[in-house]
Design goal:
Length: about 160
């Protein structure tokens, strides 16, 4: 078995920083690539991703069309199990909440200069559908109230 020609020592403190295994892998790879003299390295995101077997960041490729498709998929097939009414999709309120959360997160990415513009700005946010509430008729309310009172009186053990 051939011995590696170069070892990369890691500082012990790296394990007390709360880094994920992926972050430790990237750090280790950057140490491996660094020049011994200048202690600098300039690998591309693609080469880092290939070396540590991680996907390349797709954030810059995200479009408003992708988000519109996501919102449609959520409202048509977003549930793990169908609801009691047989719906497979999530409510329009939930889809709108996802849009608002993505908008805030991507706005932060713009401020941190990870992306140039926020793709949610060009999206049509899902509209919240108003559902009319079914309320009881006064005679139904009286019947239920009378039933509750009778049940309470029967079970009263005073």
């Amino acid at each position: 078995m051939k011995k590696p020609s170069r070892y990369v020592p890691l500082p012990n403190e790296i394990f007390s920083l709360g880094l994920t295994p992926g972050e430790i892998s990237v750090y280790s790879y950057l140490l491996f690539c660094a020049s011994r003299k200048s202690n600098q390295c300039w690998p591309s995101y693609n080469s880092i991703g290939k070396a540590v077997h991680m996907s390349v960041n797709k954030l810059t490729k995200l479009t408003s069309r992708d988000l519109q498709k996501l919102y449609k998929d959520l409202t048509t097939h977003g549930r793990v199990r169908p609801s009691k009414k047989g719906n497979e999709g999530l409510s329009s309120t939930t889809a709108r909440s996802v849009h608002l959360m993505l908008h805030a997160a991507l706005e932060r990415a713009v401020k941190e200069r990870l992306i140039l513009r926020n793709p949610t700005d060009d999206c049509i946010a899902p509209k919240v559908r108003k559902v009319e509430m079914n309320i009881l008729k006064p005679e139904d309310t009286a019947f239920i109230l009378a039933h509750v009172v009778m049940t309470y009186l029967k079970n009263d053990t005073r």
